[in-house]
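Long-time lurker. I teach an intro course on protein structure, and each term I like to show students one example going from raw sequence to a predicted 3D structure in token notation. This year I'd like something fresh instead of my usual example. Would anyone be willing to generate the tokens for the chain below so I can use it in lecture? Attribution to the forum is fine with me.
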Amino acid sequence: MSTDRLLDGRLKIRHLVLVIAIADEGTLVRAAASLHITQPVVTRGLREVEELLGVPLFDRLPRGVAPTQYGHSFIARARSVLAELRIADEEVRLLQSGRLGTVTVGTHLAGSNLLLPRAIAGLKAEHPRLTVVVREGTPDTLQQLLLAGDLDLTVGRLSSTVPVRLVQERLHHEPIRLVARVGHPVHGRSKISLADLVDFPWIFPVAQTALRAELEAVFFHEGLPLPADRVECTSMLTLRNLLVSTDVIAALPMFIAVDDRELGILPTPLSSIRRAVGVTLPKDRAPSPAAAALLGHLREEGARLAELEREIAQSELAAATAQR
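-- Reply from a regular --
Happy to contribute to a lecture. Here you go:
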């Protein structure tokens, strides 16, 4: 198939809309209803796209259709094209009205406590009429939303592997530290090993997350079993409420505890766990003016947090040296 065949005028935007509707609805009948057209029009339009591409996009099943391997690829790209067109239309409309518009950012735990809120505050001080939409989710969910064009960028822990259509930019490193409420029985001890903490209740990240695997590796390296009394949770609201109201211990990004007067950091080292925090962006999509403005503030706040991290590390090193 020659790429020029998709640019010679035969492929229409309505074809992309139609293919996505079929994928979302699962049948030609429901796709026609959602687009307020007849089924023969849908059937003819799908046939036109498949003839142009020279491959089937859907397998015809007894009760509907399912994307083929070619269909999955084409549908993903079609979603991106339509997302770009929506963004372009929004940017032109907002530029006409003298506004920057809206930026939609995804976040997950790391970076959501200080980096993102501070960047948003700086952005809003500079552009009061700009709208910021923040969406929380797991890293894999946020990646899919980013690829589909539903997010402008994501903020949080950087991954060792990302889809080739995404690019990452590190803003600062943030150690993972053990945290307990102020007044917890373990506070006040000069030295607390991981073994001293096993019998307390814990909050662990859910399985199949990077932090969970890293914590399990730390316990394994120390020759310790995982705490038997534990809750598995990724909801920050639930997690914090349990932390301040019970004797649970949790591993959190350091700045979450540093900025919370009801939480205290334990002097138990987790040197093998250190997070690179930054932004993830689409590689083939230029940031909108609103997203570019937020990105600038994120970079500024990332530099400040990197300096704060260095100061905290030096202070902790000095305190540890004085105790020897």
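Some talking points for your students: The chain has a mean pLDDT of 87. The chain has ten helices and eleven strands.
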